[in-house]
Fold each of these.
Amino acid sequence: MQPYQIAKTLVHNFNAGPSILPKTVFQQASEAVLNYNNMGLSILEIGHRTDAFQAVMDEAQMLVKELMQLDSNKEVLFLHGGASTQFFQVPMNLLHENASAAYLDCGVWGSKAIKEAKLYGKVDVVATSKDRNYSYIPKGYTISDNASYFHYTTNNTVEGTQMHAMPQTSVPLVADMSSDILSTVMDFNRFSLIYAGAQKNIGAAGVNLVIVDPEILGKTGRNMPSMMDYREHIKNGSMLNTPPVFAIYVCLLTLRWLKEQGGVPAIQQVNERKAKLLYETIDQFPVFNGVVDKEDRSLMNVVFTINDPEVEKEFLAICKSNGMYGVKGHRSVGGFRVSMYNALPYESVVVLTDLMKEFANKKG
Ligand SMILES: *Cc1c(COP(=O)(O)O)cnc(C)c1O
C-alpha cells in the first residue's frame, strides 16, 4: 500500500535534530557536492544568482506550496539563523510596541519564544503547562481578540507533546512547526506565519523555512535592519543576501522525496503507524512509563521513562549496543526520547519495540 522505502541499515537514527534524512537525499547531496548536474562544478561553488541555483530556489518554493497546498498569496522564504532567530524576528515584524501578542507556553521552545517577544511589546501568556513539567497541552484558554497574533508551538520536541487541534481564534495564527512540519495534514492556510528550522523534518541545519501572508506585514511602524524585515526578503526572492545554498538544496531533495512518497497524507499514515507501535509497546509493559497525557502525545518525539535509574541505564546500554542512536532523553526530562521524523523507516521502530518487549519480559 505504501510506496515507502525501507532502508536496510544496521543503525537506527532516533536523533532529535539534526536528525535522519532519507538515504537517497544523502546520496544525491553528496553527488552534488562533487559535480552538480554534470556542470563540472560543485553545488558549493556556484553563485546563488546563477540560473542553476535559481532553479533550485524556484523548485523548492514551488514544492513547499504544492505539498502544503498553500494559497497563492503565501510567500515561501528560506532564511538564516535557525528557528531561534524567528523567536525575535516574528515580534519584530508583527508586534507594535504598544500592542500585545498572545502566546501559549507549552515547553522549552515556546518559553524561549515568549522571552524574546517581550523585547518588542507586551506578551499575554494565555496558558502554560509548566505546572506539570510541560507534560500536557493546556485547553480551554481564551485569546483576546485584540492580540496582534497568537503564537504556539505545534510540536514540543523536548517534552513529547503535540497540538492535535487548531486553536479557535480570529486573531492571526503564528506557529513554530520546527519539529512536525509536513508530517501531518493540516490547513496550513489558516496560519499567517509558519516557521520551522529545517534540521528536523525538511533538511540540513542552517536554514529556516518561513511561510508568511504579506498582508500582516508592515503594520508596526518599527524600523529594522533589512535582514530582519520579511518584506525585504520577499522583494528579493529570498535572496537578499547569499542564501544557505547547500542547506536549501538538501531541503529541495527532501521535498522531492516526500512528494515521491505520496506527499503529506501518505507520510502521515506512516507516522501514525510508527507512533501506534511505539506507544502500544510503552503502554503494554509496566516497566515503561509514557510521560505525557495520552491525548497530547506527539507522533514525532516519544518520551518515556523507566522508574529505576539503574534499569534505565541498562536499557540505554542495550539500545546502544544494538545500533540505536539518539534515544537518551533531553536533560530536562530524563529517560528516553525517541524521535520519529518523516524519514525514519517503520522498520527502525519495529527493531526498537522488539528490543523493548524482550527487555520488559526479562524484567518480569
Ligand atoms: C529545534 C527547535 C527549535 C530551535 O531551532 P534552532 O534552529 O536550533 O534555532 C525551535 N523550536 C522547536 C519546536 C524546535 O524543535
Note: The chain has two domains: 25-261, 263-362.
Amino acid sequence: MIVEFFIFIITVVIAYGLYNYYDNHSYFKKHGINFMPGVPLFGNTLKSSLSLMNMIHELDEIYKAFPEDRYIGLVQMTARTIAIRDPELIKQVTVKDFDYFTDHRQIFSDPLFSESLFSMQGEKWRHMRSTLSPAFTGSKMRKMVPFMCQTSQNIVEHLKETEGQNINVGELIRRYTNDVIASTAFGIEVNSVKDQKNRFYEYGQKIINFSSVQKAKIFLSVIFPKSGFQIFPKDSLDFFKHIVTSTMEYREKNNVERPDMIQLLMEASKGTLDGPTEDKSDTVGFATTELTAVKPKGEVQKWSTDQLAAQAFIFFLAGFDSTASVLVMAFHELALNPKVQETLYQEVKEHHEKHGTVTYDGVPTLKYLDGVLNETLRKWPPTLILDRVCQKPYTLPPPREGGKPYTVKEGEVIFNFVNSLHMDEKYYPEPEKFKPERFSDENKQNIKLSAFIPFGSGPRSCIASRFAILELKVLLYYVSLNFILQKCEKTRDPIELTPGEFQVRCIGGSWVKFQARK
Ligand code: HEM
Ligand SMILES: *[C@@H]1O[C@H](CO)[C@@H](O)[C@H](O)[C@H]1NC(C)=O
Ligand SMILES: *[C@@H]1O[C@H](CO)[C@@H](O)[C@H](O)[C@H]1NC(C)=O
C-alpha cells in the first residue's frame, strides 16, 4: 500500500515536471522569447539547487547566452519569469512604470516576514514605506554615526590584540554588523567581539544559518508560492519580537528616548514622526527615493506593535548579512590589491589628521573611499533577488531587433539581473579587475551608471541604502587607518564564490592578516 502510494506520488511529480517543462517552452516559443532549455522540475537553476555552482554564476550563463536580447525567459525551478537584461528597460519598469510592478513575489509565510515592508503589497506597502522613510533621512542618520564609530573601535581594538594572526574575517565582520544593528535598530548595546556568546548574536546567527531542511523549504516555496512554509526558527522570531515589545513598553513607562529605530518606530506608531523634510545639511546625497513616488492615497495609518516588530525584524534580516558580506569582500579585495589600499590609506590619513574622527559630514568628502565601496558593491552585490510582480497588463518592447512586443500579464513575475550587469564588459571594461578609479569623476562617463544597481531601483529600492553606506564606510575608514591588510597562505586569489549558498561568500572564507600601522 505504502509503496503504491509512493509510486503514485512520484508519477504525479514527474508528470507535473514534464508538463510544466514543455508548457514553459511552448509559451516562450509562442511569444518569440529566447530561453535556455534547463531541466524538468529544476528549470534553469539545477546546478545551484544541487550546490554545484553558485546561483550568481548559473544566472550569468543564461545572461551571457543571449547578448542581443533585452529580456529572456528564465525558469526558476518551475516558476516562469521574464528576466530583463537591459539596464534601460529595468529602469523603465522599476521607476517610470513602477505602478505596474509595485510588489515582490510572496514567498515565506512567517508572520514577522510577511508583515514586513519587504513583503507588503500595494497600498499597505505605500503606507508603511512612507511611515518608515523619515527614519532614514540625513538628520536621523547623523545621530547614528557615533554608534557606528563606537562599534568600529571595538573591532579595531580586537584586531590590535590579535595582531599578526591570520583571521577569517567573516565572523568578525558579522559581529560588527550585528552590533551596529543591535544598537541602531533595537537599542541594545552589545559588544559581540568581547562577549562572544551574547544572545542577540546567537539568535541572529540562527536566523541566517540555513540548514538543508530550510534550503529545501525555500526551493519548494519558489515552486509552490502558496505552500505557506515557515522557514525561520520560532525561538529566534519570538526573541526578536520580545525585544521590540519589551523595549517599547519600558521606554513608554520610563520616558526613555534614544536616537535609534525603536524610537522611530514608536513615533511612527503615534504618527508623530516628522515628515519627509530633508535638512539642508543632508550632504550624503545618496539616491534615495522621492517620497512623493510612494505617497499613499488614504489617511495616516496606525500600526500595531506586532507590525512594528516585523519592521525591526526585516531591518535585522535585510541589513545584517548583506552589509557583512560587502565588508568581507572589501577587506578581501584590499588584501589582494595593495596599491588600492595605499591610496585609500593616504586619503583617510589626511582626513583623520585634519579632523581626528569621521563624521556624517566628513564621509562624502572621502571620494576614493566612495570608489572602493562602489567597486566592491559592483563586483560583489549581495543581491540575488530583484523580482517584481506585474499588477496590470504591461507591454514590453520587442526583445530584440525584428522581434514582437510581449505583454506581461497580471501576476506574472519579472526578474531583473543585477550581478550579471555589474560584470558585463560592455558596461565595465575588465570586469574582473578591482578598480575603484572607475568611479572617479574623470572616468565616470565611461561606465554606465544605470547598470549599477546594488540597492535595487525605483521606489521599491533599499530603504536603508544610506544607512548601509555609512555603516560600511565607517568601518572601512577605521580599519584602513589602523592596519595594513595582507594576503596570507590561506587567502584565496582570485576570489571564488561558495556554491550552494544564498550569501556571497568566498570558498574557504576570506582570510586576511592585519598588520598594525605605526
Ligand atoms: C550593503 C547593504 C545592503 C544592500 C546591498 C541592500 C540591498 C537591497 C535590495 C537590492 C533591496 C531590494 C530592492 C529592489 O527590489 O529594488 C533591498 C530592500 C530592502 N532593504 Fe536593503 N540592502 C542593504 C542593507 C540594508 C539595511 C542595513 C537595511 C535595514 C536597516 C535594509 C533594509 C531593507 C528593506 C526594509 C528593504 C525592503 C524595502 C521595500 O520593499 O520597500 N537593507 N535592499
Ligand atoms: C550553522 O548550522 C550548522 C548546522 O545546521 C552548525 O553546524 C553550525 O555551527 C552553524 N553555524 C553557526 C555560525 O551558527
Ligand atoms: C556610488 O554609488 C552610489 C549609489 O549606490 C551613488 O549614489 C554614488 O554616486 C556612487 N559614487 C560614484 C563616485 O559613482
Note: The beta strands are 71-76, 79-84, 166-168, 387-389, 394-396, 406-408, 413-416, 483-486, 511-516.
Amino acid sequence: MRLQAALFVAACVSPAAAIYPDEVNQIDFHHALLGAPSFDSTFFLKPSSASNASLLYTISENSILGAINPRDGALVWRHNISRPAGGAGLLRGLDGNNAVVGAAGDYISSWGAQDGKLIWETQFDGGSVADIELLEMEDATAASGVRDTIALIAGKSFGTVRRFDGDSGAVKWEYIDDSGDVPFQVSSSPTEIFYISLQSGLLKSSKVKITSLDPVTGQQVRQHILNTEGDITGPESVLFVGANSASPLIAWTDKSQKTLKVNVIGTKRVSSVTIDNTSGEEIQEITVHAPHKLSSLPHFLVHYKTESGAWAEVYHVDLKSAVVSKAYHLPYLQGQSVIATSNIDANVYFTRISDLEAVVVSSASHGILGRWDMDAPSSDRSVAAVTEVVSKGKSVAVRSVILRKSGDWQLIRNGQVEWTRPESLIDAVAATWAEVEEQEELAHELEVEGHESLLGAYIHRVKRHARDLQHLPQWLQELPQRIISSILADEVTNLDSFGVSKPVIVATNSGRVYSLDTGRQGAVIWSTQAAEKPWDVKNIYARAGVVTIDSGDGSSVVVNASTGAIVSRSAQQGPKLQSIVNFEGHDGSSPVRLGLLGVQEDGSPVAPFDDITGFLVTTSADGRVLGWVESDNKTPVWEFVPPSGQKIVKATARPAHDPVASIGKVLGNRSVLYKYLNSNLVLVTAVNEKEHVAGFYLLDGVSGKVLHSISQAGVDPLQPIASVVSENWFAYSFFGDVVGDSSAKGYQLAVSELFESSIPNDRGPLDAAGNYSSLHRTGNSLPLPHVVSQSFMIAEPISHMAVTQTRQGITTRQLLCTLSSSNSIVAIPRPVLDPRRPVDRDPTSAEAEEGLFRYVPFLDFDGRWYLTHSRDVTGIKNVLSRPTLLESTSLILAYGGDVFGTRATPSQAFDVLGKSFSKLQLVLTVVALAIGVAFLAPITRKKQVNMLWRAT
Ligand SMILES: *[C@@H]1O[C@H](CO)[C@@H](O)[C@H](O)[C@H]1NC(C)=O
Ligand SMILES: *[C@@H]1O[C@H](CO)[C@@H](O)[C@H](O)[C@H]1NC(C)=O
Ligand SMILES: *[C@@H]1O[C@H](CO)[C@@H](O)[C@H](O)[C@H]1NC(C)=O
Ligand SMILES: *[C@@H]1O[C@H](CO)[C@@H](O)[C@H](O)[C@H]1NC(C)=O
Ligand SMILES: *[C@@H]1O[C@H](CO)[C@@H](O)[C@H](O)[C@H]1NC(C)=O
C-alpha cells in the first residue's frame, strides 16, 4: 500500500501558491468594461486595409474609448481619456484609416485602430471640444495615409476650427470665430470644410450660419445664413448635421412638427417636406439617418417614433439642384424599433430592428433584401443600433449592435443574440454573494432541533429524514452516472457544493441589479431595473433566496435572488442618511442579520436600538467619531475629536466575520506571546492638510479610549491613504516621509501587531482576571496593548485594503491591496508583513523555526501575489472577501469600475484534491494490487509451508 500512499501525498502537495495558467477563467472572471456607449460615436470599422475583419469602436459616457471584437464581444484595447473638466466624449474613424481619433473635454488624441497605441495627443487651455471629424478627402501631402482631423473647440465667447496633422497632431491651420455665435458642428464635402454656428436672433430663436473654409489654408471662402428663425431655438432643435457625406445635410422641423426642412450644406436652398402624420398619435422623436462616407449615394432616412410605434421615410437628394424628394416609406410598426445605416461601396443600406424582426432594405428601392425573426424582445428598451451589412450574391447578411437604455449592448447576427456586454456594471456601488434558499432551510431545521427537548428533537429529526426519503429513488438513479463521471471527469473536484461558486449580486448607481454566475466566467444570470438613476445604495444584504437593497433616502427594494423579480418595495421615508448599519452576526459561514439602523449626516442614529445588544461607532459630518449605546440616540456616550487641524478621512473596524483560531503566537522556543484580542477595535485616520501630517488612532469602540496612536509627517493628502484592521493587527499605507530620514519620501505600507504583553508567557494585567469590561472598570482600567510595528517602502500607491476571510480563521490571512496605478490586486501573505522580522541581522534558529526571516525595508511585490495576474483590472473602488465551507478557500470580489472575482487559497488548497489527482489511476492501482495479492498469496503460503517442512 506504500505506492498508493505515495500517490496520495504527491497529489496533495503543490509546489507554490499562485494562480496556475489552467485556473485562469476557471476560478476567476473579469468584466473589462467601457461604460454605456454613446451611440453617435459607436461604429464598425476595418482597422487596416489589409484585412476584411472589422472591429467595433466606441467611446462611453465615462469617456473610455475602446475596440471590441465583434465575434465574441471581447475587449481588444481601451483607454480612459476622462478629464476633470468633463464633457461628452467623441470618437471618429474611417475605413482603411489606421487611426481613430477621440476627444473629451479639453483633450484630443489619436490611437492606432488595430493595437490601440497612442499616435498623438494634444490638450488646450480654455474651451472644450464640440465636434471632430476626420477629413476623408484625398490629400497628396499625407504620406502614411493617416487622415487629418478637423476639430471645433468651443470656448466661452469664441469658436475655433483647427486642422490637425494625421501623423503628428501638429496644427496645420486655425480659424477663429469671435462673433459671439454658439459653435455647433463641423462638416465636410469633397471640396470644402463647413463650420456651422448658431447666431442668436430675436425671441430666443437662432439662425444657422454656415462658413465655408478652404481645406488647405483654413481661409474663409464664403458665409451665408439660413433663415430658420422661429424653428430653431438652440442646438437641441437641429435634428441632424451630416458629416463626411457626398451631400452633407442639415435637417430640422418647424415648431409644430408639421414640415421637415432640409438644407444641403453649402447651398442656400431649404427644401420643405410635409410630415405624414397618419399614426393618430403624437410624434415623440424624429431622427435622421444618413451614411457617413463621401462616396456614398446621397440618400437619407427619417425615423418617426410615437408612444406605441414607429415608421420611416426614405428621401433622395438631387446633387445638381439640391432638391430633396421622397423615395419610399417603411410602414408603421407597433413596438420599439431602431434604424441603422451602413454602406457597401456607394450603396446605402438601412436596417430596421423591431421587437419581432430585423429587415434590411437598400436606400434605392423598398425591396426587402433580408429579414430575420428576432429572439424574445427584451424589457430593456433599445435606443439605437449600429450595423454592418455584407452582401452575399443577391442577398445580404447583417450584424447589428443594439444599444439599450441601461447602457448594455448586444450583438445580434441574423436575429440571434451573439453576445451581451453588461456595461452598466461599471457604476457598481454595492455587491454581495447571494444566499441559496435550501441551505438556509437546513440551517433553520438544525436550529429548531438544537432548541427542542431531546425527545422533540429526535422526533423532528426522524420526520426530516423520512421526508428526505422521497428523493431516494432519484438519488439512486443518478448514482451510477455520478460515480462514473467522478472517476472519468477531468475535473476531479466539483466544489460548487462547498459554496465556492455562489452567484454575485451587484447593484449599480444607474439603478440596475445584476446577478453574475461566478462558476461561468461571471456571465449575467439576470439583470433588472430596480430603481432610478442615481441610486444612492447604502446597504445590500442577501438571505434565503432574496436580496434587500437599502438606499440613502430610506427606501428599499427586495429582489428574488434566483430570478431577479422584484418581491417588494418600500417607499422613501425619514431624513437623508449618511449610512445604514447592518447589525450582523455570523452563523458558521452565513451571515445573520440582527437589525438595521440608519445613521444621519450628523452621525446620530435615527432611532434607539433597544432590541439589539451592542454599541455603535459613527463619524459625523463635522469630523468627530461618536460612540453610542442601545437606549440613547441623542447624546453619544463618548466622542473622539482629533487634534486641531486634523480632519477625519476614514474609520475602519474589524470585519463582522473575523474568527481567531489561536489566542497566542507560539515562538520558536515554545513560549507564547498572547495576542491582544479586542473585537471592538476602531482605526481612525485623520489628516492635517496644511501641515501634511496624518494621524492613525486605534480606539476601543466601547469606551472610546485611544489604545495607540501614530503620527506620520510629510504626508501627501492627495494620495490615497488606505487602512485595515483584522484579528490583532492593523495596516495602513500612505505617501510620506521615510521614518528616520525626512529628506526621502515614498509610498509606505505600515503594519502593527498588538500583544497583551511584551514578555512571552505573560498575559499582562489581565492575567488573573476571569473576564473584563471596557465600560465598567473595576479597579484597573482597560490595559493598553504592547504594539510591535514595522513599515515597508512600496513602489506604488495602494488605493484600497481588505483581508481574506476564511471559515475558521486557521488559514493564514492575506492583505488584499488594490494597486490603482498598475490596475491590479495583490494578496500579500501575512507572514511577509510580520512586524517581528529581525532587523539588520539574520534570524536565530528559533526565529527561523517560527517562520521569521530578515527584514528588508523595500517590499517588492512578488509576481505570485498578483490575484489578477496579467489582467488589467481598472477603476476598482472596493474589494470584498467572504469565507466558503472550505477552510482553505476565500472568495474575493472587486468592483467599482471593472468587476473581478476570484478565489484565494492563502495556505494552498489543503482540503481539496488537486487537478493532477487521478481517481481512475487510484482505482486501477487498487485493482492491480488486489489481483497481485490474490495471485501471490497462495504461492507465498505454499513457500512458507515448504520452509516449515524443511526446517524440521
Ligand atoms: C476582402 O473581401 C473582398 C470581397 O468581399 C475580397 O475580394 C478580398 O480578397 C478580401 N480581402 C481579404 C484580405 O480577405
Ligand atoms: C399628429 O397627429 C396626432 C393625432 O392625430 C396629434 O395629436 C399630433 O399633434 C399631430 N402632430 C404631431 C407633430 O404629433
Ligand atoms: C424566487 O423565484 C423562484 C422561481 O420563481 C421561486 O421558486 C422562489 O420561491 C422565489 N423566492 C422568493 C423568496 O420569493
Ligand atoms: C523565547 O524567545 C524569546 C525571544 O524570541 C525570548 O524573549 C524569551 O525570553 C524566550 N523564552 C524562554 C523561556 O527562553
Ligand atoms: C477614468 O479616469 C478618471 C480620472 O482620470 C477616474 O476618475 C475614473 O475612475 C477612471 N475610470 C475608470 C473606469 O477607471
Note: Confidence is low (pLDDT under 50) at residues 1-16.
Amino acid sequence: MNNSKYKERAVYLDNAATTRMSDEVKAAMEPYLKENFGNASTIYGYGETAKEALRNARETIAETLEAKPSEIFFTSGGSESDNWAVKCIAGEYKHKGTHIITSKIEHHAILNSCAYLEQLGYEVTYLDVDEYGLVSPEAVFNAIRDDTTLITIMFGNNEIGTIEPILPIGRIAREKGVLFHTDAVQAYAQIPISVHCYPVDLLSASAHKFHGPKGTGFLYIREGVKIPSFIHGGAQESGKRAGTENIPGIVGMAKAAEIAARGMRRRIQRETMLRNYLLEKVTHEISGVRINGHRTRRLPGNANFSIRGVDGASLLILLDEDGICVSGGSACNTGESRISYVIRELKVPEEYAAGTIRMTLSGDTTRADIDAAVASLKQNVARLRDEPCTPG
Ligand SMILES: *Cc1c(COP(=O)(O)O)cnc(C)c1O
C-alpha cells in the first residue's frame, strides 16, 4: 500500500479501523459521481437512474443478510445506525419502560448513546464480560426487567475480535418480548450473518469496514419494528431517514458487500490461517506475550495481544517508522489511562495491559506482510526493553 508518508510500501494491518477501497468498488461508484449525478427524488431520467441504483443496492444488501429490501435503511455509517437504533427505540417505547441492557465493551457509538439516554433519565445496565470478552446469555436473561425495552450487544468486538453469543441472546430477547439490536459493524461482510437464522430486530453495518467508502452504512430494521426517524426532513428511505441519498456511497457499499459475500468462505479460511500464523509467530518469537480475546469465537482477521513490560504507544511509533501500521489498545484518549476500556474489562494484568497491540488483517494481507510486521515488532520490543527509563 502506498502512502506519501512512507518511503516504501507500508504494511497495513489496521483493517478494523478502516479498509482500503477495492478497485472494483471504486469503478462501480465512478459513474455516480459525475455522469449519473441525479437526485433519486426527481422524476426525470437522471432521477430514474439514481432510483434504480438505489433499488439495486438495497436488494443486494438485503440478499447478503437474507432480509427484505424494505428492511434496509441507508445511513451515514455505523455511528449513525447505532445512535438511531438505541436512541429511537428507547424513545418509541418510553411508555413501556426506560431500561436498556448493553455490555461494557461496546463501541463508543453505543456506550455514548446510552450515556446520553442516562442523562435523560433512562437506566442502563452495562453487563460484564468474561476474560475472553464474552457476554453471558444468562446474565442478559437475569438483567431483563419488566421495564426493559432494548438489548444491544455487539456481534463482534472491534478491539479483541470476540464474537458474542448473538443466537442465544436473541432467543432470550424474543422469548421475553424485548427488542434486540446488534452492532455488526465489525462482523458484517466478514462472517456469514443471516437475519433469518439470528433473532435480531435491528443490525448496524458500515461500508468502510469492508472495502467500501467511508460515510455510508445501513441499519437493518426487522419488518414490524416500530422506530421513529432519527434524521427528520424529506421522505427518503420510506420516510424513515431524511436527506438526499448518497448514491455513489450506497452503490459502492453494495458492490463491496457483494464482493465480500462472493468470496467469504475462502477469505475466512485464508485470513484465519494467516491470523493464527501471526499469533503463533508472535508468541514464539517474543517473550511475555498474552493473546487477548477468544481463541476460536473470533473474527477471522483479528489478532490482539499484550506484551509484558513495554509501552504500547511507544511501540506503535517505532512500528510506524518501519512502515507497519497497527493499533494499540484502541485510539488513545489523551490525558486518560493508556489502557483501553475493553482490555481493562478482560482483567489483563497491568504489566501486560499497557503493551497491547491490535493487528487486523484483510483479504489483501499476505504472509510477507505478517513476516515483516513480526520482524519489526521483535526488534522494537527488544529495543524498548533494553532502553532505560527516561528520568522524570
Ligand atoms: C467502526 C465502528 C463503528 C462506527 O462506524 P462508522 O461508520 O465509522 O461511524 C461502530 N461500531 C463498531 C463496532 C465499529 O467497529
Note: The chain has a mean pLDDT of 95.
